[in-house]
């Protein structure tokens, strides 16, 4: 386990099983429909890459870059879109693929924006949903795991852009972001990884 992680919440194996289940459910629902998987950059990249391969109906992939956390463990409250979709969605069934729902602000903003573009349907699939009081309520159609209100990293999720490459989802040691310990460095010895 990485030295900055205090607990593995969801293992690689658990993720693999859940992705297969979600892929099955999604395939059943979208049979015969013009499906667009909309991934949110950057956190949802590993999830959408695995999930797309577990969905067995024709689909398109596109991405929006949406960010609000920056280098913090709490939302700035300002959602910035730095990359938009390539084309219109009014003839598509859009399924948003998110890594995590935390405050709810990101998805609230995104849903509002996309509804105004009149997709044939709009649904949400999130790998993780945090058990906390949300700033915006979100109805999620497909949920991977409910997790406690702790800051997690791995499988796409970052702290200050690090840890996205961990193959599992783990709780980050609070000492990392409370300042007494620096995040993973480029010059880490193999024993520290
Ligand atoms: O429900 P919320 O409180 O809005 O949090 C969820 C969002 O926050 C994170 O994105 P982030 O801003 O860190 O961008 P990133 O995906 O590039 O890491 C995460 O990937 C979700 O998109
Ligand atoms: O717990 C989290 N970890 C990483 N990124 C996040 N974005 C919202 N919540 C989280
Ligand atoms: Mg982030």
Helix content: 10-25%
The CATH architecture would be: 3-Layer(aba) Sandwich
| Largest sheet strand order | 4-3-2-5-6-7
**How many domain regions?**
1
Number of helices: 4
CATH class: Alpha Beta
Average per-residue pLDDT, rounded, comes to 93
- Which ions and ligands are bound to the chains? 1-O-pyrophosphono-5-O-phosphono-alpha-D-ribofuranose, hypoxanthine, magnesium ion
- Measured by DSSP, the beta-strand proportion falls in 25-35%
N-to-C CA distance: 7 Å
Main attributes of the structure:
single chain, 193 residues, alpha/beta, Rossmann fold, six-stranded mixed β-sheet, three-stranded antiparallel β-sheet, 4 helices, disordered C terminus, binds 1-O-pyrophosphono-5-O-phosphono-alpha-D-ribofuranose, binds hypoxanthine, binds magnesium ion, EC 2.4.2.8, hypoxanthine phosphoribosyltransferase activity, Hxn_phspho_trans, guanine phosphoribosyltransferase activity, magnesium ion binding
